[in-house]
Amino acid sequence: MESNFYCVTGYGWSGFGAVVDLLKEYDGFISIDSEYPLISEPHGFIDLEIFLIQNWHFLRHHKAINDFLIFCKKINKKKSLYNINGINIGNKLSVDFMKISYDFINEIIDFSYKGRSRINLYHLNKLENIITKFKWKFFDKNYTKMYFSRPTEKKFLNAIQNFHIKLFEKYINNGFGNIILDQAIPANNMYRAMRYFPNSKLIIVDRDPRDIFADLVRSKGLIGPELNKLNIESVNKFIKWHTELRKTDNTVFKEELNKNILKINFEDLVINYNKEVKKISKFIGPELKQTKNKYFDPSISKKNIGLWKKINNQELMEKIKMEINYPYVNF
To answer: Residues 239, 180: contact at Cβ < 8 Å?
Structure first.
């Protein structure tokens, strides 16, 4: 069965969760019900491509592979006080996640070898560093497994696509050929990341940045504590932060992939629900059956529109409106 990957993303607090819930209402669609961190987060696939393809160094590429495997081990565990990155991904997908991860690495490396290098000491604390150096000095056999890898771009991309097919194999075999991934692809680097899937479509959810500002103030997330000051300095920080998030990469992949990208506004999805659902249905396949309001109820999401009106200093909200490009609507 052919697999299709529907990635939903936005610009931080922009309402992409609503579209994830909406897609779950269609037959044959399934979500892992957590963010998918393997592509854009530090030590993920984008970092690997940078260090193995664009910025190769005879030692740094080994460090990138090792960091990737450490990252995989962390997200494969349950979330806990000691491992806030854990999402228990192998258990969620009913697969041997670490085997799939090592199979991917074996597919892109030329060989592994036993070696010594100071780059293997970066993650150690002072005591571990001293012990390791002592072993190096007095025990010749104390080496570290290291990787040598300089794949072609084609080989690298084929390996990542194979990785994703294996990772979601159980879902696909059980009739869920359409995989929903939450924030798997960053909107500002979408053209690069879309190449990591054999068949991918991307839905970008945009939202009034004033409401994003208000959400950040309310949740104190990311730069939220800065925004609680409610002055020109904090708003300027938000405008700079959000403007940079909205910048899209210009790569040679753009023209080819644009047909698989849909951009919608959160406010339109909530207020003009039927119109936007028709647009989304046409994008994913108009023949697909939807059980409306099973997961997404626009009447509930409506309360998240116009949060900016509760901010005391409306001059600051006007500044955000004037300086960030967004198709404002009278909601």
So the answer is: no
Angle at 20 (CA atoms; ends 227, 214), nearest 5 degrees: 15
| Spatial separation of the C-alpha atoms in residues 183 and 152, rounded to whole Å | 27
CATH of the domain at 275: 3.40.50
Q: Give pLDDT tens digits for 27-86.
A: 999 998 889 999 999 999 999 999 999 999 988 999 999 999 999 999 999 988 888 889
In a domain, 309, yes or no: yes
Record the tokens describing residue 101, joined without a space: 């991860």
Q: Which of 164, 167, 37 is CA-nearest to residue 93?
A: 167
Count other C-beta atoms under 10 Å from residue 58's C-beta.
9
Q: What is the pTM of this model?
A: 0.89
Report the domain count for the chain.
Answer: 1
268 located within any domain? yes
Q: Closest by alpha carbon to 296, among 331, 264, 328?
A: 264
Report if residue 255 sits inside a domain. yes
What CA–CA distance (Å, rounded) separates 163 from 157?
10
